[in-house]
Design a protein that fits this description.
The complex is a heterotrimer of chains A (291), B (311) and C (407). Chain A contains eleven helices and four strands, in the order ααααβββααααβααα. With 291 residues, chain A is mostly helical. In chain A, the strands form two sheets. Chain A has a two-stranded antiparallel ribbon. A two-stranded antiparallel sheet of chain A has the order 2-3. Chain A is globular, with a radius of gyration of 19 Å. The mean pLDDT of chain A is 83. Chain B is globular and about 55 Å long. A two-stranded antiparallel sheet of chain B has the order 1-2. With 311 residues, chain B is mainly α. With 407 residues, chain C is α/β, with parallel strands linked by helices. Classes of the chains: A mainly alpha (291), B mainly alpha (311), C alpha/beta (407). At the A-B interface, α4, α9 and α11 of A face α5, α11 and α13 of B.
C-alpha cells in the first residue's frame, strides 16, 4: 500500500463524493420543501442517463454539451411530475407519498426496461481514458469534470435560492410551509419548482456520470440508496449538509474499499450513518426538530 | 355482520385445497397469506405505533437464517428453531429500538436507520462463511417430514400459513382493543401529548418493536422452509423490506384487516398483470407500478379507508 | 383452477386442429415443453437470449418434421417469465406442472436453478438446464435434473489447466496472480477453486479482491491490483464490473501479463467489444463456446443473426443445444410420459454436437465430459486459442502494455 495508491483513492473518493452530493442535493431539496422521500429520484437520474446516451450514440452530442438539454428537460419533468402526480397526495399521510414515489419508480424503471431492454450500455468518449496529472497522481478526466460540474451546479442552485424571488419563496416554503402560504407565496408553484430543481440536479449528475458509468434500467437504484444515506447524514433539508455528506460518504467508501474487502466498506458506511444519527439525530448540519 | 362474513371467508379458505387441483392457486394463496402475515408484523410497529420501518427484512432474515442454521448445523427441528429465531429477532429489535428511540430518531430518520441496520446484516451475512456467505443456505430436503417442518404436498404449507395468519390477526385485533394498543395509537398521533398523559413513549415503542420483530422472524422461518433456500439478498435485502411494508400500507396501516386486504389486492394485481401482458418484458411490472400510483390517489388511507368512507 | 388447465389444453388442441388442411389424415400431436426464463429483471438480457435460442431450435426441429418417433409431433413451447426472482420461478414451475408439460427448459441463472430443479424433483418433471453453473445444483441426488454444460468448478479447473499448459508451452514468466471477484455465489466459489488450484501450475495468488457487484467505481480495487504488481489478473464477475475493471485498468495504466477470466461477465461477449472497442483486445476467457470445427455452427449463427439481429452469444447457444438434447431423448423414448423421457435423458449418449464435447449424464445428472474453451479477443474477433484441437488462432501472451496498443 503506497502513498500514491492511498492518495489516488482519496482523490477518487472526493470526485465521486461530489457526484453523490449533487444527487443528494436534489433529494434534500425535495424533502426539505415537501417532506417527501422521493424514491423515484434514481429512476429520473437513470432516464437522464439514457437521454444522454442516446443523444451521444445517435447524434454524436458530447455528454457535457447535452447538459444544456437534459437539465432543462429534467426540470420540466420534475415540475410536471410534481404537479400531475405528487400534488395529489400532498395532504395524505406520509406513507401514501412514499408509495406514490415507489410506484413511480417501479413504473419508470420498467418503462426503461421495455423501451431500451436490459443490456447495460457503455459510452466511450474520445477523452474517456484521458487523465489529468496532479503531482504523482493521474486523475481520470471525466470524473474530474463531473466533480467540477457538480460544484458549478451547486453554486448555481445556491445563487438561485438566495438571489431570486422564486428561490427565496422555495426556501421560505422549506422552512415554514403554512407561514409561507399565509404570506401569499404560491405554495403549489413553489413545490413544483422545488421538485423541478431537484430533478434538474439529478439529471445533471446522471448526464455527467455517463462517460464513466454504465447505463442500465437498474442503475438508479445503486445511486439512490447512497443518496439517502448522504441526505440523512447531512440533515434532511440542509444543502451544505448534502455537500458535506456527499464528500464524507465518497471518501469513506473509497478509503474503506482500499483497506477493507469489497462490501465490508459498505458496512462502514451504514455504521457511520447510524452512529452520526445517534449522536446528532438531525444529521451533521440539519436543524433539530422543534419539540 | 362482520363476523359472518369473516367466518364465510375462513370456510372458503379452509376448503379450497380440498376442492382444487391447481398447484398454482394453492401456491399463490399461500404467498398471499404469507405476505399478509408479514404485513401484520410490520403493522404493529408501523401502523399502530406509527414507527415506519424501512428495514423489516432485518427481522425476517434473522428468523430465516437462525432456524435454517439450527437445522443444518445442529439438527434442530425448525419448529423449535423458529422460536430461537424469534427470540434473536426480538433481542436485535430491542437493541435497535433502544438506540433509535432513546436517541429520539423519528420519521424518515428512523425509517432509514432500520434500513441501515438491515443492510449491515446483509453485508455481514454476505461476508461470513459460516452462514453460507453470498451463497446463502440450502435446507437439506427430507421429503415429507412434518416434524421437520417439511412437507411433500404444498397443501400442508397452505394450512400452516393460514393458521399463522389467523393467530397473528387475532393477536393484532386483541392488541388493538388493549390498553397497550391505545397507548400505541396515542404515541403515534402525538408523542408529546401522550407523554404528558403519563404514557411512556419509549417503552410503548420498544414493546411494539419487540412484538413486530418476533412475528416477522416467524415469517422468515416459514419462508425458508417453503422455498428451502435463503441468501443475504432474499433475507435482508431492501426489496424484501419494501415488499413487507407494501401490503399493510395499501390495505390500511393501523387496522386489523389492512394487511390481509393489501396482500390480497397486490397478490391479485400481480397475477392479473402477469397474465395480461406476456409479450413485452417489463410491461406487466410497469402496469403494476401504475396501478399502485392510481391506488394511492384513490385509496389514500388504504382500502380500509375507502370502505370506511363508504359505510 | 381446473378451468385454467382446460383452457390451456383446449387452446393446444384447437391450435393443432387448425394447423393443417382439414383432411381425413390424422393431425400429428403437439408436445408441450415448458420454459422458465428471466424475461424481466436484472437477468432479462440473458433470459431473452435463452428464449430465442430455444425458439430457434424448436422452429428448426418442427420445420424438419418434428419428432419422428411420435409421428411427426411438433414441439410447442409454453414460455413463462420468472422475473429473475426465485419465488416467481417457483410459481412458474407450478404453472408448468399444472399445464402438463413433458419437460422444462431454462432457467439460465444458478440462483433460479436451485429452486426450479427442486420443484421439478417434487413434481417429477425432467428439467434440462441451460447455463446455470453452480456445482451444488447437481450434487443433491436429484433424478430429474440434467445439466450437459460444464460447472463452475469444471470451468475453473480447466481454465487453470489451460493456463498451466500455455505457460509451459510458451515458456511464460508469469508468477503473481491477483483474483478479483464479485461478492456473490459465483464469484466466491470460483475464486475459492482458483486459489486452491493455481499454485499447482506455478502461479502464486498474491492478492484476492472481492468487490461489491453493484459498485459504481472499482478504482480502489484496480489500485490494489497495481500495488500487488500482478502478472496475471483473474476476474470472476458479471458484465458491468468486468467491463469497468478493464476500462479502469486502461485508464490507470495498470499493465499485466494477461487478464484471464473464468466465465467472465464481459469475456467471450461481442457486446463488450462493441462497447469498448480496442480496450477489449487480448482479453482471455475460459467459457462456454461452440466447437469451431463443426459445420453446423456457421449456418446456425447466421440464421440467429438474421432472425434476431444479435451476434453469437453462448447464452443462446446452450439453450439451443438443450432443445436438441431433449429432442434426442424424445426420439428414443417414443413417448411424452415424463418417466420415460427421464429415463431416455439419463441414457443420453450424443456426439458431434455444436458444443465442443460429447453429452452423457452421470448418476447425478451432470455431464462429466463438458468443458470450457479458452478464447482471446484478437483484432475485434473472439477466437478460440486453447486447447489445440479447437484452437483457431495462436494466443498473444504476454499481452502488450496499454500505451503500446494500437488505436
Amino acid at each position: 500500500m503506497t502513498l500514491e495508491v492511498v492518495l489516488t483513492s482519496l482523490a477518487n473518493g472526493v470526485m465521486l463524493g461530489g457526484l453523490y452530493a449533487l444527487v443528494a442535493l436534489g433529494l434534500t431539496l425535495i424533502f426539505g420543501v415537501m417532506r417527501i422521500i422521493n424514491f423515484a429520484h434514481g429512476s429520473l437520474m437513470m432516464l437522464a442517463m439514457y437521454a444522454t446516451f442516446w443523444l451521444a450514440a445517435a447524434a454524436g452530442v458530447d455528454p457535457y454539451l447535452s447538459l444544456a438539454l437534459t437539465v432543462p428537460a429534467g426540470f420540466a419533468a420534475g415540475y410536471g411530475v410534481q404537479r400531475g402526480i405528487i400534488a395529489r397526495v400532498l395532504g395524505a399521510p406520509e406513507h401514501s407519498q412514499l408509495l406514490m414515489t415507489l410506484g413511480l419508480a417501479l413504473f419508470l424503471d420498467n418503462l426503461a426496461l421495455a423501451l431500451f431492454d436490459a443490456d447495460p450500455r457503455t459510452l466511450l468518449v474520445p477523452y474517456s481514458q484521458a487523465t489529468v496529472p496532479l503531482g504523482p497522481l493521474r486523475l481520470n478526466l471525466p470524473r474530474l469534470l463531473a466533480f467540477g460540474g457538480a460544484l458549478v451546479v451547486t453554486g448555481l442552485l445556491a445563487l438561485f435560492l438566495r438571489a431570486t424571488d422564486l428561490g427565496r419563496a422555495v426556501r421560505a416554503a422549506a422552512e415554514e410551509r403554512e407561514g409561507a402560504a399565509l404570506c401569499g407565496i404560491p405554495v403549489g408553484r413553489v413545490y413544483a419548482t422545488a421538485f423541478g430543481l431537484g430533478t434538474a440536479c439529478v439529471a445533471a449528475a446522471g448526464t455527467m456520470a455517463v462517460p464513466f458509468f454504465y447505463v442500465a434500467p437498474e442503475v438508479g437504484g445503486s445511486f439512490v440508496i447512497t443518496a439517502f444515506v448522504v441526505v440523512v447524514l447531512g440533515g434532511l433539508g440542509s444543502f451544505p449538509g448534502a455537500l458535506l455528506g456527499g464528500l464524507v460518504v465518497g471518501v469513506a467508501e473509497s478509503l474503506g474499499g482500499l483497506f477493507f474487502h469489497g462490501s465490508l466498506a459498505q458496512i462502514g458506511i451504514f455504521g457511520l450513518f447510524v452512529v452520526i444519527l445517534l449522536v446528532r439525530p438531525s444529521g451533521l448540519l440539519g436543524t433539530p426538530p422543534v419539540a | 355482520m362482520r363476523g359472518a362474513g369473516a367466518a364465510l371467508l375462513l370456510l372458503i379458505a379452509v376448503g379450497i385445497p380440498l376442492a382444487v387441483r391447481s398447484e398454482w392457486l394453492i401456491g399463490t394463496l399461500t404467498l398471499i397469506y404469507f405476505f399478509a402475515f408479514l404485513g401484520q408484523g410490520w403493522n404493529i410497529l408501523g401502523g399502530y405505533a406509527g414507527q415506519f420501518s424501512f428495514g423489516h427484512a432485518l427481522f425476517f432474515g434473522i428468523g430465516a437464517y437462525t432456524s435454517a442454521l439450527a437445522f443444518i448445523k445442529a439438527g434442530w427441528s425448525p419448529w423449535l428453531g423458529m422460536w430461537l429465531g424469534a427470540a434473536l429477532a426480538v433481542a436485535v429489535g430491542l437493541i435497535t429500538g433502544h438506540l433509535s428511540f432513546r436517541y429520539g430518531l423519528r420519521g424518515a430518520y428512523f425509517a432509514l436507520v432500520m434500513l441501515a441496520f438491515a443492510e449491515i446484516f446483509r453485508v455481514a451475512a454476505t461476508n461470513w462463511a459460516w452462514v453460507g456467505a453470498s451463497f446463502g443456505l440450502l435446507v437439506p430436503l427430507r421429503g415429507h417430514a412434518p416434524a421437520l417442518f417439511q412437507f411433500g404436498d404444498k397443501r400442508w404449507f397452505y394450512y400452516v400459513m393460514l393458521a399463522l395468519l389467523l393467530a397473528a390477526t387475532a393477536g393484532v385485533a386483541a392488541l388493538a382493543r388493549s390498553r397497550l394498543g391505545y397507548e400505541m395509537v396515542a404515541v403515534r398521533e402525538n408523542e408529546a401529548a401522550a407523554a404528558a398523559l403519563g404514557i411512556n413513549p419509549y417503552r410503548v415503542k420498544l414493546t411494539a418493536m419487540a412484538l413486530s420483530a418476533g412475528l416477522t422472524a416467524i415469517g422468515g422461518t416459514f419462508y425458508v422452509q417453503y422455498f428451502s433456500y435463503v441468501d443475504p439478498g432474499i433475507g435482508f435485502g431492501p426489496t424484501n423490506s419494501v415488499e413487507i411494508l407494501l401490503r399493510p400500507i395499501l390495505g390500511g396501516a393501523g387496522t386489523v384487516w389492512g394487511p390481509l386486504l393489501g396482500s390480497a389486492l397486490l397478490g391479485l394485481l400481480g397475477e392479473a398483470t402477469r397474465g395480461l401482458v406476456t409479450a413485452h418484458a417489463g410491461l406487466h411490472l410497469m402496469l403494476y407500478g401504475a396501478l399502485l400510483m392510481v391506488a394511492v390517489v384513490f385509496l389514500p388511507h388504504g382500502v380500509i379507508g375507502l370502505l370506511r368512507r363508504r359505510s | 383452477m381446473t378451468t385454467r388447465r382446460r383452457f390451456l389444453s383446449t387452446t393446444v388442441l384447437a391450435g393443432a386442429a387448425l394447423a393443417g388442411p382439414a383432411v381425413l389424415r390424422a393431425q400429428p400431436r403437439e408436445i408441450l415443453i415448458g420454459e422458465t426464463h428471466p424475461l424481466t429483471g436484472p437477468l432479462a438480457r440473458e433470459g431473452s437470449l435463452g428464449k430465442r435460442g430455444i425458439e430457434l431450435a424448436v422452429n428448426e426441429i418442427n420445420a424438419g418434421g418434428g419428432i419422428a418417433a411420435l409421428g411427426g409431433a411438433r414441439l410447442k413451447l409454453l414460455v413463462l417469465d420468472n422475473e429473475s426472482k426465485p419465488p416467481v420461478a417457483i410459481s412458474t414451475m407450478e404453472k408448468l406442472k399444472d399445464a402438463g408439460v413433458t419437460a422444462v427448459l431454462g432457467p439460465y441463472a444458478s440462483g433460479l436453478a436451485f429452486v426450479t430443479t427442486q420443484e421439478a424433483e417434487k413434481y417429477r418433471i425432467p428439467h434440462l438446464l441451460d447455463v446455470a453453473i453452480a456445482d451444488q445444483i447437481t450434487e443433491r441426488g436429484f433424478r430429474y435434473t440434467f445439466r450437459f454444460g460444464p460447472t463452475a468448478g469444471m470451468g475453473a479447473r480447466q481454465t487453470v489447466e489451460y493456463l498451466g499448459r500455455l505457460k509451459q508451452e510458451l515458456n511464460l514468466g508469469l508468477r503473481r496472480a491477483v483474483l478479483i471477484h464479485e461478492d456473490g455465489l459465483f464469484g466466491r466459489a470460483t475464486a475459492d477453486t482458483l486459489q486452491a488450484l493455481l499454485p499447482s501450475v506455478g502461479l502464486e495468488v498474491v492478492e484476492r479482491i472481492p468487490h461489491n457487484a453493484q459498485a459504481p467505481s472499482l478504482a480502489n480495487e484496480v489500485l490494489r491490483i497495481k500495488a500487488a504488481r500482478a502478472d496475471v489478473v483473474i476476474p470472476s464477475t458479471y458484465y458491468p464490473a468486468h467491463s469497468l475493471i478493464v476500462r479502469t485498468m486502461a485508464e490507470q495504466r495498470v499493465d499485466v501479463g494477461a487478464i484471464v477470466s473464468v466465465y467472465g461477465g464481459a469475456g467471450s461477449q461481442y457486446r463488450f467489444i462493441k462497447d469498448v472497442g480496442k480496450l477489449a483486445d487480448y482479453m482471455l476467457d475460459g467459457n462456454h463456446w461452440y466447437d469451431p470445427r463443426h459445420p453446423r455452427v456457421g449456418p446456425t449463427i447466421a440464421v440467429f443473426e438474421r432472425a434476431y439481429q444479435h451476434p453469437f452469444a453462448y447464452e443462446w447457444l446452450l439453450a439451443y443445444q438443450s432443445v436438441h438434447v431433449l429432442r434426442d431423448a424424445l426420439e428414443r423414448a417414443g413417448s411424452t410420459e415424463r418417466e420415460k423421457v427421464r429415463e431416455a435423458l439419463a441414457a443420453t449418449n450424443l456426439r458431434d454436437q455444436v458444443v465442443p464435447y460429447p453429452i452423457a449424464f452421470d448418476q447425478h445428472g451432470q455431464n462429466p465430459h463438458a468443458r470450457v474453451l479458452l478464447m482471446q479477443v484478437l483484432d475485434g474477433r473472439i477466437a478460440v486459442v486453447y486447447p489445440p484441437p479447437f484452437a483457431e488462432a495462436r494466443p498473444v501472451l504476454p499481452v502488450p502494455a496499454w500505451d503500446r496498443r494500437g488505436g
